[in-house]
Amino acid sequence: MTTTEKNCEDTGRSGPPNGFALLPWLLMGMGAVSNLLQGETPNPWVGALGVLAFNSLYVAIVFRAFDGRRREAPATWWLLTALASVTFALAIGYGGAWLLFFPLLGLAVGSVLRGRRLVQVVLPLCVAVGTVAGVRDGWGAVDVAYGTFVSSMVTAALLALSETVRELHLTRQELARSAVDRERLRFSRDLHDLLGHTLSVIVVKAEAARRMASHDVDAALAQISDIESVGRQALTEIREAVTGYREGSLTAELDRARDILTTAGITPSIRLAGPLLEPQTEALLSWVVRESVINAVRHSGASHCDISLTSAADHVHLEITDDGRGPGPGPSGSGLRGLSERLVAAGGTLGTGPGPAGGFRVVARLPVASPQAEHGREQAAG
Fold first, then answer.
1. Do residues 176 and 4 lie in contact, with contact meaning Cβ atoms separated by under 8 Å?
2. What is the structure's pLDDT at 253?
């Protein structure tokens, strides 16, 4: 498991508190319980049943409040209505310490309601609480109504904030997972292209060395030396790809393309025109050259391959054409599909198909934000 994945898992375990966080507030009702135990409450069995009903309804509501689906269910609203009925009944019947059940009712309301509905319920509730408390407790009604208002609004605000933090954590987790997936895809594409190119070069040069071994030992040894050099270069490129810092040099890639085409018996023609390119643009075009040349060597049966690069102030155009058999049946290979996805992500396009005079053609076009140099370059090689 990577560090990013482990952080995602740890984040997923964090979240808002559950219903247990609101249970300690039930201690506010201890004054009413004390009155019952001391025999100061008329009809104590009615009071005891009222306390039991209040606590049961309160516990059921606050635990449902932390589940979005259950919080919005009609059953929760019925429970909240029942809790309000019990609270008002106890307050009207007994007054005094029993009025402290109103702030607890506010906690339950705040745990369930959000936004406009919260205001629409809390304001009439506080007016009703102030009226009942005023009748039973005189000026103490102000404290009870204020406590009910604060408990409901603060509870709703804190829980809404907690839910927002949890949503942000989940979003960060999803973004981290997406980043891991993108990095894995990038690495798999780079590795596919690197190994495919390197192994193809080695195979071509090994075949050339085998053909030359019987009549030109020095040329065969030169091909074997090239195989060693290609292998060493591949090791370096794979290490750079693993660390994520590999940026292809277009000039070096064109030199390698010239070499492998010549070794495979294909005559290369490379033409460059226009201002110098940004490193990222060169890296993308290097992959296009690499994949196209390998396809030409493997599948085309061509005798000539033309590579033309034209860069302007706002775009760069790369065209690679051979005179071989042309496109085969079925969809393009995974290498070309991967290249197309890369260029589209960079705002460019990749087109493939038959050339104007037969064979196979690859056309890549990329936007250029700003050239690094004002002077141009022109080069032709046959």
1. yes
2. 84
